[in-house]
Design goal:
Radius of gyration: 46 Å
CATH class of the largest domain: Alpha Beta
Strand content: 5-15%
Shape: globular
Low-confidence stretches: 1-72, 99-103
Number of strands: 13
Number of domains: 2
CATH topology of the largest domain: D-Maltodextrin-Binding Protein, domain 2
Number of helices: 18
Mean pLDDT: 85
Length: 515
């Protein structure tokens, strides 16, 4: 496009008693009287004085065997009876009293593991249902959620991760990975695999969080940019929401209103063109450059100047926005501007400022006749390399990546504030797309890209994002100040290469010999 913004176990038997004559009625244990057998007491010896003839052998005595047999008949049944009675008593005792007298087996429960979780943005009230669901399935793992202040968060979490008392789980932004990768533990086997991440999430997630087939974290939401439109203003002019950048400019000009005497803007068309009061401008400009097919790791060429100029022209040439307007979100909520480009979470701010405002969200503009390109800014949960319980920590992060957990979070956020963010898990996002505010953002995720120029990530002033954004800001302001475009683009390119090379994201520039 010429001069236009381009977008690209048998039981033992007991023997019975020996049969005997019936017992006496007087004594049931004594046999009834029968004909007496000879005994030692009633035998009459043969003629005692006469000696026995030679070779005489006295007859064998018969009394003793009779006595022994009688005793046997008496004692045997008694013994057997006692044995049987004893066995029965033992069995009854074991049945009714054995379990009570048996010494209990001592079982020592596994000690609970407590995981410290540094969170950001989401209050405890929103995270509690997700944490409760995990702990119900894993009662020996306790999640200590500690919501952090965003102020100096990047520096504080960096120090914490390198300490001996490191948090186990932290929330980070994907653009921080060049700074934090050495502090994180990639997902161990049998937790969250690269295949699982690439299957269940949008392509941008795998591109940002998988390196050398190792997974460095998992996101719960995936933010982007949407076009917020004051529908009443467009209806007044019988205008349709724009789909391309050219349409956007046309609509912006048509709805703009200015004081006829001073020319001061009383109602702006769209909040674009500068860096002073356009919130999320780094994301917007980065998106425009990506749509134009520009590599942000090698940001040079005529397309760069054309794209940046197209952006600044909303102020310098077309006058549909200026520095006198309130910050873009406030301006939109107060009906000072017809359109803004913003992330989904801005919907809550708009609703809070002006509950009665008539507005809708549409996909961001694209260039005609080219494949769409959209923007993503993603926070994720990672596990500290110094965690004392890394397997348990990754078990929790893997749960957070599940459709179950993300549906719980979505429902919880909806209850808490009315405007949840787009879920990162595709299965949940498809359901969430029924929400009219989120639908455009979710529709853009399959074609989303990102870079280290994402805004509002709370980077320190000397960190990667902040430094790149500063170079981008200087370029835009230079064009607004009518500086020479080639020099502006050259300075932008050199600045990006310098910063990116320090993080190993591009090759370091080769020094030019001094003549």
């Amino acid at each position: 496009m010429d001069n236009q913004f381009p977008l690209p176990g048998p039981t033992a038997m007991v023997p019975g008693p020996t049969p005997m004559t019936p017992a006496s009625p007087l004594n049931p244990l004594t046999p009834s009287p029968v004909s007496p057998s000879p005994t030692l007491s009633n035998l009459t010896p043969p003629e005692e004085a006469a000696p026995p003839p030679p070779g005489y052998q006295p007859p064998a005595a018969t009394g003793a065997p009779v006595i022994k047999a009688s005793l046997a008949r008496l004692i045997l049944p008694i013994g057997v009876g006692l044995i049987v009675i004893g066995l029965i008593a033992y069995i009854i005792f074991r049945l009714f009293f054995g379990s009570k007298t048996q010494a209990p087996v001592s079982v020592t429960p596994s000690p609970a593991v407590t995981l410290t979780y540094f969170g950001l943005w989401e209050p405890t009230s929103v995270m509690k249902p997700v944490i409760d669901a995990f702990q119900a399935k894993n009662p020996n793992i306790v999640i200590d959620y500690q919501m952090q202040s965003s102020q100096d968060y990047q520096d504080r979490v960096k120090i914490a991760l390198q300490s001996s008392n490191s948090p186990d789980i932290v929330r980070l932004h994907t653009t921080w990975l060049p700074l934090f990768a050495t502090d994180l533990l990639p997902a161990p086997p049998n937790t969250l695999s690269a295949t699982e991440l690439n299957t269940n999430f949008y392509p941008i997630v795998g591109k940002l969080l998988v390196a050398s087939n190792q997974v460095y974290g998992a996101p719960m939401t995936a933010e982007g940019l949407g076009l917020f439109v004051n529908t009443a203003m467009l209806q007044q002019k019988q205008l349709q929401p724009p789909k391309t950048w050219e349409d956007l400019l046309t609509v912006a000009k048509a709805v703009k209103e200015a004081d006829p005497l001073t020319g001061k803007i009383t109602r702006a068309g769209v909040a674009l063109g500068n860096t002073t009061n356009v919130e999320n401008w780094p994301d917007i400009v980065s998106l425009m450059l990506l749509q134009a097919g520009i590599s942000l790791t090698d940001i040079q060429g005529s397309e760069v100047s054309t794209t940046l100029t197209y952006y600044t022209d909303f102020v310098t040439k077309h006058g549909v926005w200026d520095e006198t307007m309130p910050p873009s979100t406030v301006a939109f909520a107060n009906e000072k501007v017809a359109m803004i480009i913003a992330p989904s979470w801005k919907a809550r701010d708009i609703k809070a400022i002006n509950p009665g405002l008539s507005w809708q969200v549409f996909p961001v503009p694209q260039l005609p006749d080219v494949d769409p390109t959209n923007w993503a800014s993603i926070w994720f949960e990672g596990v500290s390399k110094n965690s004392k319980h890394p397997l348990e920590a990754w078990k929790f992060v893997s749960f957070l990546a599940s459709a179950e957990a993300q549906q719980i979070l979505f429902d919880s956020a909806t209850t808490d504030r009315g405007f949840p963010q787009p879920p990162a898990n595709k299965a949940v996002a498809e359901t969430a797309s029924k929400n009219p505010v989120l639908a455009p953002f979710i529709a853009e995720l399959p074609t989303a890209k990102s870079f280290y120029t994402a805004s509002m990530t709370q980077d320190s002033k000397t960190a990667l994002n902040s430094r790149l954004i500063k170079y981008l800001e200087d370029a835009i302001n230079g064009l607004i100040a009518h500086q020479e475009t080639p020099k502006v683009v050259e300075a932008l390119h050199n600045g990006f290469v310098q910063v990116l090379s320090q993080y190993g994201l591009v090759a370091a520039p080769t020094p030019t010999p001094t003549p």
